[in-house]
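Example complex used in Figure S2.
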Amino acid sequence: MKVQVRKINEKDQEQLIIECVEVTKEVEEIKSFALSKGTTLTGILEERIFTFPLSAVYYFEAVDERVFAYTKNHSYEMKVRLYQIEELYKEYHFIRCGKSFVINLLKLQSISPALNGRFTAHMKNGEKIMVSRQYVPSLKKAVLGGAF
Amino acid sequence: MDFKTFMIKRVMMSFFISVTLITFAMAIVGLIFEPHMTFGYEAFFSPLIFGAIASFPMLVFYSNKEQSIKEVLLRSLLHFLLLEILILSNLYIFGILTSPSMALSLALTIFIINLAVHLVSYVHDRRVAEEFNSALRLLQEKIQDTEP
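Predicted assembly (296 residues):
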């Protein structure tokens, strides 16, 4: 696929046009990725596409090959990979706390010790997420070390 | 966590804690069963040797994959059983175990030391969690104050 970047003068005129013969899975992924670059996300719920603010997301979870965004009342399927979410929303206080989880630090109530040097993340909606040992240092650094 | 980090962080930490607690336990058990026994300089190697033996079963905790609570509990049980078998059999081979009551009290001592290691780890993790939670609250307040 050819990629062209053309400079324009007006910020509000910025747009991404994908020209393709067929809307494939890859094209859908590029589209979702582009849409995810802001703080308004698009996700699929019951085969319908919804938009919701990033700030409403408590955490993202990867289940098999699919990624879900969990808000207070809904879970939306996202068309981006978890590692992309981790990179995209780092500056918005989202941090990885396990192989399958990226949590919103602003929706985190507290952490408590769990077994074997791991921690449990208590989210503000009452859900509990296991923090893996290997992600504890980065989580500590993000909050204690002023990574933001 | 890769194997090298696991060995340095977890196994070495377990070794040093075990050496300290074994020295203490040997003093207590020795005072009860053989209060008049004298030792040569080679006795200083005992806590180091048994510390190494006690740290070896820590390898059962190594895994590249994320472990569930059930898995961690199972591995903890396996670790404890390996500890008891390795230490008691080594004591028996070296001719240190002289009576069933001594074997029983040592088995109990190993249990208490194992529990103490977990307790030390838990107390440390609880302190980390408290520190983290305070910093998290400050971070959340700071972000709320700066947001329009």
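Chain A has three helices and ten strands. The longest helix of chain A spans residues 25-35.
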